[in-house]
Design brief:
This protein is α+β, with helices and mostly antiparallel strands. The protein contains three helices and two strands, in the order E-E-H-H-H. It has a two-stranded antiparallel sheet with strand order 1-2. The longest helix is centred in the C-terminal third of the chain and has 15 residues. The protein is globular and about 30 Å long.
């Protein structure tokens, strides 16, 4: 099974919801993960959520029906980074 990855960004000053900033599988996914690691960006593994997010276009805000799942990801990240 190929590795899949989706990168999210949320800037509460400019966006009403998190946006998909990158997505891919195989080599592209591995590069997304590598860049995240090099920049100390936390990674949360959730195959089901990656499947759903990978259906969205890049630079597209996450739809309201996905807010709960995304909130869990951001909560996990905040606990890891204390930010």
């Amino acid at each position: 099974m190929k590795t899949k990855a989706v990168a999210l960004k949320y800037d509460k000053e400019t966006n009403s919801a998190p946006k998909v900033t990158a997505k891919g599988e195989g080599f592209t996914a591995e590069n997304i993960i590598k860049i995240a690691n090099l920049n100390d960006v936390p990674i949360k593994k959730d195959e089901d959520l990656v499947e759903m997010l990978s259906q969205l276009e890049i630079d597209r805000e996450v739809p309201p029906e996905m807010y709960k799942a995304i909130a869990e990801v951001f909560s996990y990240i905040y606990k890891l980074t204390n930010k």
